[in-house]
Specification:
By secondary structure, this protein is α/β, with parallel strands linked by helices. It is about 30% helix and about 30% strand.
């Protein structure tokens, strides 16, 4: 498993985004999957009522293999796919659906399976619980003016900095900040996307509104996911726990970071999150994962698929 994972990582590390997606498609087709989708990849193999769906996320960022470590933004997600491809090189799992989507693609294909594993950094713990989420978009508009005469206008980035500072005091995660401008003008519009996790999302949203009073911002809820809890006696959980037991200690935990996990459960699919890496390091410059953890993930996933 170790050599196979390293081999896959070495191959995809030199490919462009389009080439990587074609690489994944080819690997699935060579293992007998019927593959659908263009922007995302949806593979189906010997579907039955007991089939399970695997959701992977691909992050189009460069990464480096340094001995027994892989470093780079998105390596938790990309290396998880590599481990799955390594499984396919020796095994041909049956009765599964596989979805591989770009990290920026919020769409989900309609799946047939009643249960799913969302591959997400949990340090190889089973995540069967997640709080509610509201994803907010904050729009900031200013009179940008010309970059040649900055005194005649205000960059929306200056106003956005004030907003992010106030949000930081509330310990709210800012997912992204984008400034928009035309030609040589200073940015006149900025968009901030932030996530509010917790049982009291409504109360926290009020705190955000109050904190940003006077900054002339426009708010919009662009995504909302209910909280969920999946009982440990559910088949998807018991089978995954059994596979983990062969390689280490079983731990069950709650997470608060996977929008995909919340969306899938809201559609009636019994899903858990599971994968290598620490969630707090996910999609950061300091992200790194050990080859040993990837080998454990690959072995556990292979045992699970055999069941």
């Amino acid at each position: 498993m170790r050599n196979e994972i390293k081999s896959v990582l070495s191959e995809i590390s030199t490919l462009s985004l389009g080439e990587v997606k074609n690489y994944f498609r080819k690997a699935l087709k060579n293992s007998g999957f019927k593959v659908y989708g263009e922007d995302y990849i949806h593979g189906i193999k010997s579907y039955k009522s007991s089939s399970v769906a695997l959701f992977f996320t691909y992050v189009p960022e460069e990464f480096k293999i340094e001995g027994e470590l892989v470093r780079g933004e998105g390596v938790f997600f990309n290396c998880s796919i590599a481990a799955f491809i390594a499984i396919l090189s020796h095994n041909s799992p049956q009765n599964i659906e596989v979805i591989i989507s770009d990290v920026s693609d919020r769409r989900l294909p309609k799946i047939k399976s009643n249960s799913a594993i969302v591959v997400y950094p949990t340090e190889l713990k089973v995540a069967n619980e997640q709080p509610a989420l509201e994803r907010l978009k904050i729009e900031i508009s200013t009179v940008g003016g010309s970059s040649a005469y900055p005194g005649q206008g205000i960059s929306s980035l200056y106003r956005a900095i004030d907003v992010t500072e106030r949000l930081r005091l509330l310990e709210i995660e800012v997912v992204s900040l984008v400034a928009k401008h035309k030609y040589s003008s200073l940015p006149s519009k900025a968009e901030i996307i932030l996530d509010i996790w917790g049982r009291e999302t409504g109360e926290m949203k009020k705190k955000v509104y109050r904190a940003l009073v006077g900054l002339d911002c426009k708010f919009d809820v662009i995504e909302s996911v209910d909280s969920f809890y999946l009982d440990e006696d559910e088949e998807i959980v018991t089978k995954l726990k059994k596979a983990i037991e062969q390689y280490g200690e079983v731990n069950i935990e709650a997470i608060g970071g996977s929008v995909v996990l919340g969306n899938i459960n809201s559609k009636g699919v019994k899903a858990v999150a599971f994968g290598p890496g620490k969630a707090e390091m996910s999609l950061s410059r300091g992200e790194k994962v050990g080859i040993n953890e990837l080998v454990d993930f690959g072995n556990i996933l292979r045992e699970f698929l055999r069941s």
